Amino acid sequence: MESSEEEDDLPSIESIIPQSKIDSVHQSLTEKGIRKLCCELLDLKDAVENMCGDMRTKYLAFLRISEEAVEMEHELVELRKHISSQGILVQDLMSGLGREMDEWKRSSDDADESEEVEEDPFPNEITDPNSEFLEKIDILLAEHKVDEALEAVDTEERNNPELKGAADTSSYKSAFIERKAVLEDQLLRIAKQPSVSVTELKHTLNGLIRLGKGPSAHQLLLKHYATSLHRRIEAFLPSCSSCPTTFPATLSKLVFSNISLAAKESASMFGDDDNPAYSNKVVQWAEREVEYLVRLVKENAAPSETVYALRAASVCLQDCLNYCKALEPQGLILSKLFLVLFRPYVEEVLELNFRRARKVVFDLNEADEGLESSSDFVAVLSEFAIASDTTMTDCSIRFMQIVQDILEQLTHLAVLHFGESVLARVLQLYDKYIDFLIKALPGHADEDGLPELQDHTILTRAETDSEQLALLGAAFTILDELLPKSLVKVWKLEVENGGGDGGDSSSSPSLISSSAPELKEWKRHMVQAFDKLRNYFCLQFVLSFIYSREGLTRLDALIYLTETPDDLHLPSLPFQALFSKLQQLAIIAGDVLLGKEKLQKILLARLTETVIIWLSNEQEFWSAFEDESTPLQPSGLQQLILDMNFTVEIARFAGYPFKVVQNHASVVINRAINIFSSRGINPQSSLPKAEWFTEAAKSAINRLLMGSDEASEAEEEYECEVEEDGHIVLPEIDDDDEHSESLETSSLSTMDSFESFASASMADLESPSFTDSES
């Protein structure tokens, strides 16, 4: 029985719900709940959006109602003032009527005919015209009929001249003056209303002028134009950010057109020519508006270090000075004031832009997306990237990009007034750029770097000759070609093609000094900056030739004290090495500086000159000759003179200027002769003639170039005139024949190294910069 009861308590197998059905039921319920919840959330979102829209609409309506309430409040205040003035007028009428009644009562007691007096209680009003006028003017003033009141006042003053005099102090005059004051107050109220039109204002101001209140009318006129201007400017200012470079043009047009209109209205209404006081007030007011304009431009311009600020300042300067010039016939001289106010801002913008330029040029990690990458000079400077580190080429390209970007922002009048300042900053930037390149040359100490390079750029040394020549080529190209082209566009100067017939195919533009005098001194400094790089390169090149890696000198005085010259009369080994090294450098320069023959000649001439300058300044070298304990031989002096002549002939042979080299060589030779003479050696008896040294030097060059078998034939072709005195003086070259003779002197060389140096005209070598009409 117990087992049957337990079975009854257990549910049957058919009543057990499968787990899958339970899961499906719960899953369906969950999906339905989620869908319902999403629908409720969407409804809630729509309700919130509707509520936000209603709130925005109600908020705008609230603001509009608030503004209307403020305007209504002002109107109530004005109405209250008007009621108060009407109350005062009624009180005045009542008191006047009381006085009249008292007078009438007193007069009625003394009259003979009482009946006539009772019929006409106001006899004075009929018989007294003054009282009648005052009553009339009071009515007109109460009804705000200012035109009729003004006409009545003018008529009364014409009929009674004593009203304008100072002697009359009657009660009628006092009452008349009081009425004029009320009329003036009504005219002032009309003129001060913000919504008054120009026509109504002029009509009101004419009324004040008729009342003798010209200064007040003039002040109201200027105030009206100032208020109108400020209202228009406030409406325009929010859009300045959308046009950061052109908004000063709109502002200046608003300000100066407003000044012009005010000046014309002032002259037509007040006759400024007849009354200087009014014209002076116009000038003072215009000056305040110009100050306001300058302040607005400063406050709404882009950051001063951007080109947008520079362009905005240039546009503002251009337009404002043009407007100032247009206002001068009206007697308004505002250009000086504007320049005084605006100059500090322009200088600040220029300074900050060039500071940014230094960061962009020297910090190669600094990116400036505003620079154009498709400029004409990018292809020109990129040619030097093949022979040098790309870091240096990027620096050169960035230099020209940033400078051109700055120059393009300048307007004509900005160049006229700030051209010297711009040129000075370009010179400063170029000088730092040259220092940057010098830092990349061998032998430069790392601690001598630029502040802009600290913790920013790690330079790669230009170790090879091709890399160093590429640096020089980039710097020279910027100086001689790219910068002049950019300046020509800005300064709008004439372009003069320079270069000889057989030289540089891409002739560089030159700036005419007579067209822009400020460029003359600037270009001299630019050349001096480039000379720092050139001289440093030449010095390092010569020092690497003179000194070995161990620090020992190869050009020692012992060469001329101990060694005996050979029968071939060749120069000493260091100078033979110099000739070979110059040949190698010329070959490299012909490839790296292709088309830059002028620079090639400058470098080779300076290298030859640097060797002799070093020798003349090396005191240790001369101390060995001056030491009396060291014996001297005439052969040593002969070898030294031959080496100097050999150096001069290298310069002549290559076709570049040799006069400076010749002068330095003469100094060395004269010093050596003096030392040997003081030691008892007679140069006249122990040395050959000057022609011998010249011919020996030429013969040595030909032997080194072609070999001894062809030396005699080469000497016949390589002839030159030599003076018969004892000095090293080579023939002069006429300016007209410089190019042809340079070609002839280089025709012997069968090597490509010197052919490129003979192709440019000698006139290009006098100044490695712009052509100067005065030089």
TrEMBL record:
Note down the stretches annotated as region Disordered.
102-128, 724-749
User: Does Transport appear among the keywords?
Assistant: yes
Q: Which UniProt keywords apply?
A: Exocytosis, Transport
Q: Which domain of life is it from?
A: Eukaryota
Biased composition (Acidic residues) is annotated at 110-122
Family, according to the entry, reads as follows: Belongs to the EXO84 family.
**What protein does this entry describe?**
Exocyst component Exo84 C-terminal domain-containing protein
Native organism is: Brassica carinata
Q: What is the lineage of its organism?
A: Eukaryota, Viridiplantae, Streptophyta, Embryophyta, Tracheophyta
